[in-house]
């Protein structure tokens, strides 16, 4: 199959799996709490219901409030197009440079922050200030994590990192870096211990507080974007652990379908691990976030140092 | 290309700027003033075109005429900075027409306009100078003109800031003079080329001393830590178009001087000498970004952001020198390219931001972010331009600053693979610090835009704000457009400037990958369009209603919004050891019977730490020395005669 | 390895704490008043049969007895989430408003604002006697009246407080009527 159809298949699959991933986490958390939980396919109905609703816009909001959902959804779509989630060597893989991806993640967070500030409520400001702090202080960890992979694989494009056959199990010095990537993923997707996505207490919200004023289709766009990001990060971590299941250009249809099925399995496993993590640990107090961020940074730095030492000896 | 065209272009530019200065001084009436400023704009436009032509065509200036000891020639380095300087100056002079008209009661208009032209003339002379004497003369013109411009509104704090600036700039100029004297052996009329040959023969100790003097001199003018303390005082006090010139262009003149000395005059330096530049650059970047994050004055925030960007540029320059000394030529070339690109990008977006800030401050009569708010709703188009500039200042793709950081960090990563362990450590430190600073810069810029433009107006003036007039907003739109154009055209720009190692004309190239900014922007646009179509196709676009924000059922007003101080509170808390902010709450009970009913005063103060650590002890030492030296004024005439005799004997001993 | 299998077995095939759907609505006295039946059906039809609805609980001045019962709905025995119903913090995210307590004068504005902040279509359910009819505070000077005096109500669930079974069966019967 040529790269364009590979990218198209990846886009359709990931966009289709994103609500399922969110539903999966909810189901696993419910089962771990002894409840039955809703079916994971119910989140599709949730998004569809949102699209049928009216939108209530705050009177004081400006054009930035309206622009935010489009930019956030666009940044999530960009990630799906360029990252190697089910395939490597896609048509747009050249744009998946690590600095560009980090920049696009920041763009998405920045517009969400501005949307929260534009709502002119104290809740929006609270979520905005917290989210901005976490995003800006997470930046060096993101860069260092991907820089370590770039160093180990010789390519600064994330697609190239996986295409080079880098495997954590054959290169165990990459484990701290995978751990740092996991910490980054938790912080970027507003999961425990950084944020509780299911809370109703505004003083404990980070991500949710910024979207309190959105309703109807705009809310559907924002929630879909965060589902896409969660799916993308889960698949990315799964691919760094087991890159063998990725399809390449020139693969037959059956191999591509196998890659898609493997991606779905990786997603379910990642969501199960996330649900277990969220059921076991507690959310950190926000004013202890510098401990989390420093720990993530030192993990990434340690991973980079290990990779450098490994190359030297 | 015939060099005569360029020489006449340069002459026209200089003559036009002089003419603008003279016309402003003698002109009475708005129309004549407007004519003076338009003359200035025309002259600087010709200068920008000349500089651009010199960059693109690179003519040979063989028999170039000399003007007051200044040889008129533009080598590639000078041409880039000449073009940049004049382009920004053109936009500023157009902006100045409407700006000074709006503030005619606060400034002496004729003097302000004349000094602006003289300031630009000084900067043009600095770039054109090919000998130390001419360089320093124009440097002094630049500094003195900007000194008078900083205190143009004659307020006490402006005067204080201007005097502080004058002291720092003259200390720096003295250091530069000493450095030039060392490198030229006292022959100050000789050209830079002669000095380069002479400097080859100097001993290492002299070179080290000269290097240190230049680092202090140019660093203090550029705003490098720890010599930057004048910058956050002087830039906010100046009129906004002067702040734009000072932040956008004058700092680049210091960078130009530093590059000229390092690359053109000093022989290739050992790698270890470049490490102080890298260290100071990183420290400037970190502290500048940190203080920008916690600042609530709009123009001071932009000034600290300038310090941060200059720190990044000096880090790139230092990395280039270090790489050259450590045997990594690809990184050296790329870091220098990134430094020049970042300088161009910073000049554009910072001058745009300062001009925009001037338009806002003019309407709201305050620089305090916490009195602003809701401006995006009241001035939608202008806020769009300011958003583009803020995102450009935050170095987000596809703006120009992002491209320069991409080039730099990509080549740092490529060099880490093959370098020695110590160099790897240095490069990893640079990588993580630049990423850290990038994150903080995003914080500061989003805070600036978010608190000033979004939400509800927090004051009466903000509630009545209007779209600024075309004279004020057109330059800002131009700068916003330029930020994107320079970002998208970065490969072409770098190829034209001669940095062939980092570009192939259409893409930026590095060891691990390549990036085409234009295609990236096209992908962004396509994805944005896809999001828009998805929304249109999946739901009814008209189905909406306006209502006030969710307030839990209780009436809310603008005072319940998040303020700038609140927005940066987590950062202030996380970095409290570095910032040493002081929070003081005093409660004075009103009724003697109940201590809980009290009048409370709360003070949050953020001090500049190194001001007390470094500057205060130096000032105290200087005062101590001068107090002791007063003992020499004993009033006894025999003592004075003995001093004259001692000085005469010492002079004879030294000279013989 | 066997411990993981045991854990999985416990999680997915272990003893079920959650009560089955058929348990709810067994008592005849769990009477539910359906006001505005046609509008209720129209809204549910528009929202994909009410399979996934988000609820915003508004307290109009209750004794918190209803609130405690609502909190119990999220526990492992009743598990309201499996029916696609979840609680949200902001009325802008809500598809249903559950109002408890008689609407006091101090909170009348809050209830009205919450209803107007919720995007249409939005179902309103009055939970508890105070919300349905005013309860024992019916003609008090401090109370405006039942919820329908302030905002339109589609569904009423009486009880002081109604047990979680009654709430759940009432809501579920209104959303997805059982054909029996």
The largest β sheet of chain C comes out as: 6 strands, mixed
Low-confidence stretches of chain C at least 5 residues in length (pLDDT < 50)?
none
Beta content of chain C: 15-25%
Whole-number mean pLDDT of chain C = 85
Largest interface comes to: A-B, 85 and 83 residues
Low-confidence stretches of chain A: none
What's the order of the H and E elements of chain A? HHEHHHHHHHHH
Q: Which geometry of chain C do the CA atoms define?
A: globular
Alpha carbon gyration radius of chain A: 19 Å
Proportion in helices of chain A: 55-70%
The figure for the number of domains of chain A is 1
Q: Give the helix tally of chain A.
A: 11
Distance between the termini of chain A: 41 Å
Mean pLDDT of chain A, rounded to whole units? 93
- Specify the overall morphology of chain A: globular
Succession of helices and strands of chain C: HEHEHEEEHEHEEH
Q: What is the spatial order of strands in the main beta sheet of chain C?
A: 1-8-6-4-2-3
Count of distinct strands of chain C: 8
Written overview of the protein:
The complex is a heterotrimer of chains A (313), B (656) and C (180). Helices cover 69% and strands 1% of the residues of chain A. Chain A is built from eleven helices and one strand, in the order H-H-E-H-H-H-H-H-H-H-H-H. Chain A has helices at residues 3-32, 42-51, 63-82, 98-118, 122-153, 158-163, 175-188, 207-210, 216-241, 253-280, 289-312, and one strand at 55-58. In chain A, helix 1 (3-32) runs parallel beside helix 10 (253-280), helix 5 (122-153) runs parallel beside helix 11 (289-312) and helix 7 packs antiparallel against helix 9 (216-241). Chain A is globular. The model of chain A has no long low-confidence stretch (mean pLDDT 93). In chain B, strand 3 (508-509) and strand 4 form a beta hairpin. The relative contact order of chain B is 0.07. Among the domains of chain B are: 270-518, no CATH class; 614-655. By secondary structure, chain B is mainly α. Chain C is built from six helices and eight strands. A six-stranded mixed β-sheet of chain C has the order 1-8-6-4-2-3, with helices on both faces. A two-stranded antiparallel ribbon of chain C has the order 5-7. Chain C is globular. Chains A and B meet through strand 1, helix 3, helix 4, helix 5 and helix 9 of A and helix 15, helix 16, helix 17, strand 4 and helix 21 of B.
